[in-house]
Every structure is written in structure tokens, then in C-alpha cells.
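Archive transcription. Copying these from loose printouts into the bound notebook so they stop getting lost. Printout 1 of 2:
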Amino acid sequence: MDNVTITDPPLARALFSETRWAWIWLIVRVYVGWEWLNEGIAKAQSPGWVGAKAGTFLTGWIGAALAKTPPRRAGLVRGLPRPRRAA
């Protein structure tokens, strides 16, 4: 049996194998990391995630997901703990 070598497409080889693209990937990674950090800080300071109304986002999200669950799968979801309602 002969060994078959499959080469990467030229565009993929240029983007991922050559070091001259490292600066562009650095800019992309720093930008994505900065956006992720900003959103995380904003979420940590939001009253829906911390403080007196903590958990209201998750309560709404889980409640909407359970409302959309088809009856045949409801048995699987019923075993999950339900979120408490914020007073």
C-alpha cells in the first residue's frame, strides 16, 4: 500500500503555517480577549447576576427553555432543579 500525502490548501497554509501572519493573529486574539473581558466585567456588575436580583437572567432563560420543551422530552427536563423566583 502506498502512502498518500494530502497537502493543505494554499490559503490555509499561508494563514496558519507562516509566521508572517502572527501579527494579524495577535491583533485578532487581543481584540477578542478584550471584548470577552469587557462583557464579563459588565455581567459581573449587572444586578441580574449579582446583588438582590441575582439569578433573574438565568430564571428567565431556563423558564423560556422549559416552556419551549416538547411534552415528550419534558420528563427529561423535569428532573433538573427549577430556579427560584425572585421576590
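Printout 2 of 2:
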Amino acid sequence: MNRKAVARELVKVAKLLSAGTWSMPNNKADSQKLLKLIKQMEKGEWPDDKTPGSALYNVLGDDQLFDSFDREAQPYLRACADMVKRRIKQFAQQDVDEYSDPKDKEQLDWLAEQL
């Protein structure tokens, strides 16, 4: 990998880190897990020992999303589901260059179509 390619990759990583996003679904299994969690939230079904943030942490970890949970809807699962869907759609509208892994963009586009 040449210096320019390395620099481009570093810029992508820096954008993700500055945005406060630490995990995204980048494979079908994670995408399906996220859809399942959204559907559970919409139905108001949730394990007592989990919060939406703790369940989503490794599937869709994003500061903006989690801040919304804290401010608005932690006890209200349906509202959390709406916030997750809205954030996925925002991510899907971003340019592929903003992702460190093109698979992230591919999976987010797929998820946005499912919502």
C-alpha cells in the first residue's frame, strides 16, 4: 500500500472516530441481529437485564444514537427503535468514502431498504 492509500485510510478512520461511531454491521449476520433488535423494541419486548444501548453496543455503536437514548427514550423501546432506524437511514445516505470498510456501507444500505 502506498503512502497516499494509507493516508486515505487514516482519513476515513479519523472521520469515524471523530463522529463517535465504533461499530457498524458489516456482515449479514450483524445486519439481521440489528433488525431483530429493532423489531423487539417496536413490540416493546426486551430482556429486563438489557438496555437498548447495551444490546446495540457491538452491533451499531454510535455516540449520537446513544445520546438520543439518554436524552429522550431509554425507558421507551418503541421510541428507541425509531431512533435506531432514523440513524441507520442517516448513515446510509453518507458517501461510501466516509466508511473505513465498504462492507459497512453495503450493509447499512441493505438495512435501510428493510426498514
